[in-house]
Amino acid sequence: MTDRHDEWERDAVVWLTGRRIEAEPAQPAADPWLARARAGFDAWRAAANLEAGAGRFAERVRRRVAAEGRGVRRIDRAPELVRPAVPGPLAPMIPAARAAHAAPLAELGVAAGSGRELFDEPCDLWVALPADLVPGRYVALRVVGDSMVPLLHSGDIVLVDLDAAVHAGAVAVARRREHVYVVKRVGRRGDRALSLVSLNETYPPLELVPGAGALLGPVVLRWCSHRPAKPRVAPGP
C-alpha cells in the first residue's frame, strides 16, 4: 500500500507542476529546475497517453471477441461432471440428462470425427448445467484444435442447443462429410453452400451444403479452464 501511495503522490506532484508550467509564460531554458520539471512533466504526460491508448486498444479487442462469440455464455472453469447410472449411446442419454438438468458429454472431439454418427457414440459422462439455464435438449462436446481461438481452446467443452435455430453470425456445430463435426461461426449463405468461418484467421473458410442435419445447433455456452486464475487478495489486518 505504501508504494502505491507514494506513486500516486509523485504523479500528483508532477501533474501540479505541469499545470503551473503551462499556466505561466515561457521561462529561460537556462533555469535547471525548470528544465528538470518540464522533462518530468513531459515524461508523465507521454506515459499517461500511452496507458490511455493501451486501454482503448484492449477495450476494442474485448468488444471484437465478444461480438465474434455473441450468444455464447462463457464459464472460465471446467464443468461439473456427473456419471449416469447406466452408460449408453448418446441419443437416449439426452432426455435422461435433461431430467437431471444436465447434458451428455461426447468425447468424440468436435473437429475430428471418427466416421460414426455422433448420436451413436457411447456416453458415460454428463455435465451439470447452470441452475439458471433454460431446460432443453442439449449435448456437450469437447473441442479439438485451435481454429476458434481466442473464443475456444482445444479441450474446452461447448454446449449445443439442439432445438434452437442457427442464425448468421452464430457460433455453431456443423456436420460435414463422413460425420466429421466442426465448430465454426456461420457466415454468409451462397447460392449452394453456407460459409463456415474460423476465428483463427490462419484457417480458411469452409463450405457447408445445407440439408437435414447439416447444422447440429448453436453453441450457447462454453466451459474453459485454460485461463490462469485471478490472484487471490489476502484479507487485511
Question: In CATH's first tier, which class of the largest domain applies?
Answer: Mainly Beta
Strand content range: 15-25%
Helix run count = 3
**Strand runs, count:** 13
- What class, by secondary structure content? alpha+beta
CATH superfamily of the largest domain: Umud Fragment, subunit A
How are helices and strands ordered from N to C?
HHEEEHEEEEEEEEEE
User: What is the average per-residue confidence, as pLDDT, rounded to a whole number?
Assistant: 78
Biggest sheet descriptor: 11 strands, mixed
Helix content: 25-40%
Note poorly predicted spans: none
Alpha-carbon distance between the two ends:
13 Å
Give the overall silhouette: elongated
- CATH level-3 fold name of the largest domain: Umud Fragment, subunit A
What is the CATH architecture descriptor of the largest domain? Answer: Ribbon
Task: Provide structural commentary.
The protein is α+β, with helices and mostly antiparallel strands and 237 residues long. The protein has 2 domains: 2-68; 73-223, Umud Fragment, subunit A, CATH 2.10.109.10. Helix content is 29%, strand content 24%. It is built from 3 helices and 13 strands; from the N terminus they run ααβββαββββββββββ. The chain has helices at residues 2-23, 32-68, 90-99, and strands at 73-75, 81-82, 88-89, 102-106, 122-123, 126-128, 138-142, 157-161, 171-175, 181-189, 194-197, 206-208, 215-223. Strands 1, 2, 4, 6, 7, 8, 9, 10, 11, 12 and 13 form an 11-stranded mixed beta sheet that branches. Helix 1 (2-23) packs across helix 2. The longest helix has 37 residues, at 32-68. It starts with a helix and ends in a 14-residue tail after the last strand.
